[in-house]
Write a structure and sequence with these properties.
This protein is of the alpha+beta class. It has four helices and six strands. The protein folds into two domains: 81 residues; 103 residues, 2-Layer Sandwich (Alpha-Beta Plaits). A hairpin with a 2-residue loop joins strand 4 and strand 5. It starts with a helix and ends in a 10-residue tail after the last strand.
Length: 221
Amino acid sequence: MNLDKLKSSSKHLAIDKANSQMLIIIGVAVFVTVFCLVAAKAVFSQYTYQSRVMSAEHTALGQLKTNVSNYQSLVNSYNRFENGKPIKLANTVANSSNDNSQIVLDALPAAYDFPGLTSTLEHMLNQSGVQIGGITGTDAGSGQSSSANPTPQQMPFGFSINNASYASTQQLIQVMQQSIRPMAIDTLNISASGSSLSVSVAAHTYYQPEKTLNINTEQVN
């Protein structure tokens, strides 16, 4: 009887030991499986991140190559324009320097320079031999100094002359037409007193802000 109990007890111990070993094996297997899943997820996340980085780098490289090509094309176009046939101006204005690019800058300045415009008007009026009554306008300081996509901006101005003759008034209009800077007359009021004329002009010219080159940075998440 005692022998049977001893055998039964030995079997229970063997079963308990086998169960313990099985639990350990299962625990280790679960740990390894979870570790592999976490590691695989981390590797996959790193792979997708690197793929996004490589795609962004490829796009940036393509844009850089395009920019280099456009830059060289722009330089070639500028050199052809600058070294080509000098721009022919009106008879009253000489292009003695043959500097085509400077003429373009004079015709369409890059800043709202109202004092400079005033000086130009005074020179034109004096050249026409008229008596300046006054020059009006808005001094907007630097105005719009730069833009990513610049377009010509209007600069309104006005002036009046007194005791002018018909010939000097006609000459003034011709001088404005022959100016390097485009000047559009909006209104022209003329009043006469005897043989002298008083003229009031409202007009506008243009400037174009400089183009800005924006260099952006992009963070890949």
